Amino acid sequence: MHLDLELQFLKKHSDLYDVKQSDREMVYYYLKLQMREYVISEVGRQFKARDRLKINRRINDAEIIKFEGIEIAGCTITGLAKYCGLISALMPTIMLTEEATKTREANVATVMFHSLR
User: Fold this and answer.
1) Same domain, 38 and 91
2) How far apart, in whole angstroms, are the C-alpha atoms of residue 5 and residue 30?
3) Do residues 73 and 65 make contact, with C-beta atoms less than 8 angstroms apart?
4) What's CA 85's distance to the chain center, in Å?
5) Are residues 14 and 28 in the same domain?
6) Residue 11 pLDDT more than 70?
7) The domain containing residue 104 runs over which residues?
8) How far lies 52's CA from each of 23, 36, 47, 57, 59, in Å?
9) Is the pLDDT of residue 1 over 60?
10) pLDDT tens readout for residues 21-68
11) Which of 20, 70, 101, 111 is the most buried (most CB within 10 A)?
């Protein structure tokens, strides 16, 4: 059946127990499609909201650090990777790294900022 027909069928049968067993497959298929569309759109909306919150948090963190006049910040290579966006927004001119374990040069090179001298 066409989706419009399935929708009309559901409007006529508000109680799913009244649906004949031979028609249930069509009804469940339609409901599955509707649920899938809803879930996909809702998940996409939630991801966009999460991304906006992350960006705003990084901006707020950078503004607070600048407002407080913090001139020196330290972190490990792991912290540098985790807070790369925040540290980049602060535009540091000097970066000193120290790690208790062996750190490959490639890992450090990936987080080099254009503001470094």
Assistant:
1) no
2) 10
3) yes
4) 15
5) yes
6) yes
7) 71-117
8) 44, 24, 9, 9, 11
9) no
10) 887 788 888 889 889 999 999 999 999 999 999 889 888 988 898 888
11) 111
Q: Which residue has the higher pLDDT, 112 or 36?
A: 36
Average pLDDT over residues 76-90: 80
For 12-34, the DSSP string reads: H--SGGGS-HHHHHHHHHHHHHH
Tokens 């900022």 sit on residue = 113
What's this model's pTM, rounded to 2 decimal places? 0.55
Residue 95 makes CB contacts below 8 A (sequence gap 6+) with 112, 113, 116
Spatial contact of 77 and 107, defined as CB atoms under 8 Å apart: yes
Same domain assignment for residues 50 and 8: yes
Type of residue found at 115? S
One-letter-per-residue 3-state SS of the chain: CCHHHHHHHHHHCCCHHHCCHHHHHHHHHHHHHHHHHHHHHHHHHHHHHHHHHHHHHHHHHHHHHHHHCCCCCCCCHHHHHHCHHHHHHHCCCCCCCCCCCCCCHHHHHCCCCCCCC
